[in-house]
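queue> holo job accepted (S-adenosyl-L-homocysteine)
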Amino acid sequence: MAKLHLITYGCQMNEYDSERVAGLLKAHAYELTDSETEADLILVNTCAIREKAEEKVFSKLGQLRALKARRPELIVGVMGCMAQLHQGEIQRRAAGVDLVFGSPAIAKVGELVERVKREGRPVLETGEAPLVKITATPAGTSHLKSYVTVMEGCEKRCTFCVVPVTRGRQRSHSPESILAEVRGLAAEGCREVTLLGQTVEMYGRDLAPLTDLAALMERVEAIEGIERIRFTTSNPFNFTSRLIHAIRDIPKVCEYVHLPLQSGSNRVLERMNRGYTRQRYLELIAELREAVPEVALSTDLIVGFPGETEDDFEATLDMVERVGYDNVFVFRYSPRPGTPAATMPEQIPLEVKAQRNSRLLEVAARAAAERSRRLQDRVVDVLVDGPSRKNTRELQGRTRCNRVVNFEADGRAAVGDIVAIQITDVLPHSLRGALASLPEETVCLSR
Ligand code: SAH
Ligand code: F3S
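queue> job finished
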């Protein structure tokens, strides 16, 4: 077998895609290796969401060029969002790249690699292609938790975002293909699936017959072996009451919603073309909390969007305090080629973005600590992932609300179990607890 090394940057969708690529290349006699120097083929799965992500990739490609200079037979490929966005620049700046292909071409990866070998010259494949559900996975990678892409692309056109350019039109996979994939994963021992899409709440609206995410989740619920269902990422614009009821009513759907706000200022939201106001967002949160009082929320926020004033920024701080997120991801606005915001006037200086970034993180950390305190002494279901990172004698797992919990198992719980844990300490980045009962009992309790 030849050796394949994969380097993955960016979001969960990229992680998912990388795994499928490794699965597909199995049929072309490639097996995975962790070592760059052992590899015959290195594929870099790239992210273009912010400039920083792209810089990392270009610097990695520089290192790979040095490797290739020593071993000219090594094949280097670039896939993912940057491949789609910067094909020319990659070929110019990163000599030594043999293959560039976008996400629509993933299904053809085997053929593309063969072409590079046969033709001995760089191959470029960045056009549109029909939607295919790829379920191949590399050997020995069964997971307790898996991502499942349910749709590709995005058509929202938020003015800061490059995804509609890099990942193309919004297309949903058929429920049958998704359910077949989830059944396969469950048969291999998977207990938790995260349904993935850039605007996952839009799932199924482009299918005939029309369907939706709630209907899909109901069908995943019925798959034996799967204990938890998550979904990400949602745009508040299309988040419906029907979806809120699905979170409330479908037992396996976890009480955790990632709902990107981006900004707390209506003026900025409008210029971002997000399609909702802060009032609408707060109404949605109120409806969600009313239906699912336990729900944990996380969000994405951008600081330093063009024209963002001190008042706009304070409106974002205010929203973070009002909503009470469990987790907040803050990004400094990064102008992206081909997006409307990149050429808007009043771009914000880097130092202002940095300052707002740290102020926002501080407020978010305080608000999150407050939210965490609610978990003190509570008994929660934990899906055991593996040994604890800091102390391998302990086990680690996650709550339904996606918090990390460490606990002493004393041989009474194993990886893959769902156990009831009483929370004894609420720490800044994790929780500590103690077994409250045996696994068999808790699985029943969680229903
Ligand atoms: N589909 C998601 C977003 C995916 S991109 C949604 O509906 O919001 C992940 C996050 O990256 C976004 O939520 C946004 O906060 C951030 N992001 C996207 N483009 C950005 C840019 N140009 N600069 C800074 N952050 C950006
Ligand atoms: Fe990007 Fe907005 Fe879609 S943030 S992924 S264009 S919903």
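queue> The radius of gyration is 23 Å.
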